[in-house]
Amino acid sequence: MDNFRLPAARGHKRTPVSIDVTVNGILNFVDGRITDLSEGGARVDGASMPARSRCEIHYGGQVTYAVVMWAEHDRMGVRFPYELAQGALYNALQSARNAAMIEPAQIFHSSRPPVFGRRGLS
């Protein structure tokens, strides 16, 4: 019998975001953008460091520690050794999830005056 295993499901829901951050590696600071975020990790575009290296993600005056899980030329995936439960990145994640919960039609209806036509005829 084969020892084939399916990969384990992710423990956290990933949320698309656009958050400008600074990543601190061992010798340098690199600007990047988080485009995918969860409590357990993130995808950082515009920054790349070697796999298995440790780094710091600076955002909102706070530091979040991370380990690079995979890296390509211009992006990388990081895992947080301590899950996000508070702080600036966690707040940004919650804001992005809350914004995604509002349907576009509800956003437009809430900003329209309750009148008929362009001139406000009743």
TrEMBL record:
InterPro entries: PilZ_domain. Residues 10-84 form the PilZ domain. GO terms for molecular function: cyclic-di-GMP binding. Pfam families: PilZ. SUPFAM superfamilies: PilZ domain-like. This is PilZ domain-containing protein. It comes from Sphingopyxis italica.
